[in-house]
Write a sequence for this structure.
C-alpha cells in the first residue's frame, strides 16, 4: 500500500504491526513514511489542518515550505518559529516578515541568520530590514560587510551606493 502511495489505507495496518512489535524499527519506519506521505498529499490538496499533525520534528520545516507555496504566510512563520536555533528557518521567517511589511519584526530573525550564516544575502536582507525600520547607519555597515565578501556583486554594489533595495538580491 505504501509503495502504491495509498497512505491512508496503509496507516491502520502499519499501526497494528507497530503495536504487535513495539521495538521493531521497520514497521515504525514504514508507518512514519506513510504518515508523511499522507501529510504531503493532504497539504498538496490544500487540507493543511488535516496534514499538519502528520509532519513531525524536522519534517515541519517541509510543512512550513508547503505553507509558503500555498500563500499561507502566517502559518509558515509560525511553523518556522518552532525552530528557534535553526538559522535557515529564522532566515525564512525574517524574509517572510519583510514581504509582509513587518521589517522591525524581521530584524531579530535576520540578525540570528547573519550571526550563524554571515552570507552576503543574509547581510543584505538584514540591511534592508534595518533601512525600512529607520536604522540606516546599521544598514550601511552590513552592506559594506556584504560588499567585502562579494566585491564583484554589481547589484549589491548598486544598493550600497544609493540605498535602493535591489529585487532578487
Amino acid at each position: 500500500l505504501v509503495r502504491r502511495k495509498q497512505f491512508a489505507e496503509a496507516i491502520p495496518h502499519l499501526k497494528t504491526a507497530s503495536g504487535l512489535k513495539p521495538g521493531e524499527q521497520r514497521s515504525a519506519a514504514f508507518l512514519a513514511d506513510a504518515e508523511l506521505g499522507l501529510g504531503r498529499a493532504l497539504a498538496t490538496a490544500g487540507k493543511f489542518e488535516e496534514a499538519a499533525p502528520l509532519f513531525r520534528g524536522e519534517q515541519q520545516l517541509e510543512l512550513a515550505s508547503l505553507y509558503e507555496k500555498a500563500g499561507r504566510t502566517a502559518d509558515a512563520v509560525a511553523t518556522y518559529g518552532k525552530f528557534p536555533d535553526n538559522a535557515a528557518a529564522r532566515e525564512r521567517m525574517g524574509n517572510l516578515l519583510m514581504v509582509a511589511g513587518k521589517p522591525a519584526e524581521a530584524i531579530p530573525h535576520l540578525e540570528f541568520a547573519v550571526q550563524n550564516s554571515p552570507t552576503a544575502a543574509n547581510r543584505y536582507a538584514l540591511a534592508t530590514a534595518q533601512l525600512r525600520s529607520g536604522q540606516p547607519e546599521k544598514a550601511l555597515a552590513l552592506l559594506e560587510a556584504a560588499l567585502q565578501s562579494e566585491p564583484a556583486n554589481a547589484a549589491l554594489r548598486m544598493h550600497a551606493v544609493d540605498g535602493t533595495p535591489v529585487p532578487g538580491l
